[in-house]
Design a protein that fits this description.
Length: 141
């Protein structure tokens, strides 16, 4: 009887995740990067140079397919290590973030929240390193 309940719970939870492609981003004019430090505080820096903003926006636009959206539940740990908070002028648009599992060699992932969308997807180390270079970080999570 317990196993039947467990199987039903698993079916319900997997139904809460849907594959989706993201809508195009609005025009991004600047972004602010936040990174988690070893003592769980965040450091912040802004990037408004048009060339860097355009490169990051183009990268994010090329990564719009293959996302998993959560309905009714969140994704849980781990949380992203770096966030690129996106702005259109003074208006906050959302964020595009990157993280990896806690164990060495764990898969890296992107997480995004903008326009009512909250989604996540696994990525390769190459994609992770490219994103980190675009936000001005060393290329390793």
């Amino acid at each position: 009887m317990r196993s039947v309940r467990l199987v039903m719970l698993c079916f319900l939870l997997t139904g809460c995740m849907k594959r989706a492609d993201l809508a195009p981003l609005p025009r991004i004019t600047q972004f602010t990067v936040s990174s988690k430090t070893d003592d769980y505080r965040y450091s912040h820096w802004s990037v408004s140079d048009a060339k860097n903003v355009a490169a990051l926006a183009a990268f994010m636009d090329s990564s719009r397919s293959g996302w998993t959206r959560a309905y009714g539940v969140g994704f849980g740990p781990p949380s992203p290590a770096y966030y690129a908070h996106l702005f259109e002028g003074n208006r906050y648009v959302g964020y595009f973030a990157i993280g990896a599992g806690a164990l060495p060699g764990s898969a890296a992932f992107f997480q995004v929240r903008y326009g009512g969308v909250f989604a996540q997807k696994r990525i390769t180390r190459t994609e992770a390193n490219l994103f980190l270079a675009l936000i001005g970080e060393s290329p390793e999570l």
